[in-house]
Amino acid sequence: xxxxxxxxxxxxxxxxxxxxxxxxxxxxxxxxxxxxxxxxxxxxxxxxxxxxxxxxxxxxxxxxxxxxxxxxxxxxxxxxxxxxxxxxxxxxxxxxxxxxxxxxxxxxxxxxxxxxxxxxxxxxxxxxxxxxxxxxxxxxxxxxxxxxxxxxxxxxxxxxxxxxxxxxxxxxxxxxxxxxxxxxxxxxxxxxxxxxxxxxxxxxxxxxxxxxxxxxxxxxxxxxxxxxxxxxxxxxxxxxxxxxxx
Length: 246
Description:
Elements: H1 2-8, H2 10-36, H3 42-60, H4 64-79, H5 82-85, H6 104-125, H7 146-168, E1 178-180, E2 186-188, H8 190-205, E3 207-209, E4 215-217, H9 218-235
Antiparallel strand pairs: 1-2, 3-4
C-alpha cells in the first residue's frame, strides 16, 4: 500500500525515479572514467563532462518525462563511446538497436539485459514489493516495471562490464558465437549464450568492497537494493540508490 501511495504522489514518485536515473548515470560515468584512465581518447573525457552536466539536469528536472529524455541522452552519449572502449575492428558498433539487435554488440546488450531483468524480477517476487508499481518506467505500457527501474542502476555495473570483459579478453568471437537470421537480426548462438551465462553467474558471485570494508557480492547488492526500498516504504528511511566507484 505504501508503495502505491508513493506512486500516486507525483512529487515523491519523481524523487524515487531520480534516484534510479542519477545512480545509473553515475555508474555509466564510472565505466567511462575507468577506460579514460587507460586511454588518451578525448571523446571519453568529453563524454564524462557531458554526463556530469546531464546528471545535474536530472537533479533539477521537475518531470519524469524530462528525466527519461535526459536518461536517453546519457545512454546515447555512452554508446557513442563503445568503439573507443572496444576493438572496433572486431566488434563495430553504430547505434543501439533492440528489435531486432542488428549486430553482435546489440545482441550482447539485449541478452545481458534480459538475464539481469529476470534475476531482479525473481528477487522482487520473493519480497514485499509489487513488481507492477515502477517509478522511472511507470509511464510505459509494460505490465511490470519495478525490475526495470532497479536494473537501470546495475546494467552498467554488471551487463556492460561483462560485455567489455568478454570482448577485450577475446572470450567471445563474432564468427563462432553469433548467428544471423533472415530479418537482419543477430543473436548469440547456443555456445555464445553459455559463455555469457557463465560470466553472468561469476559476476553475480563476485564481491565488491564497500565503504565499511565489507565485501558484498553483486547478487547480494541487488537484494540489498530491494531491502532499502522496502525500508523506505515501510519505515520512511531515506532511499539512496547504489553507486559504485572504480
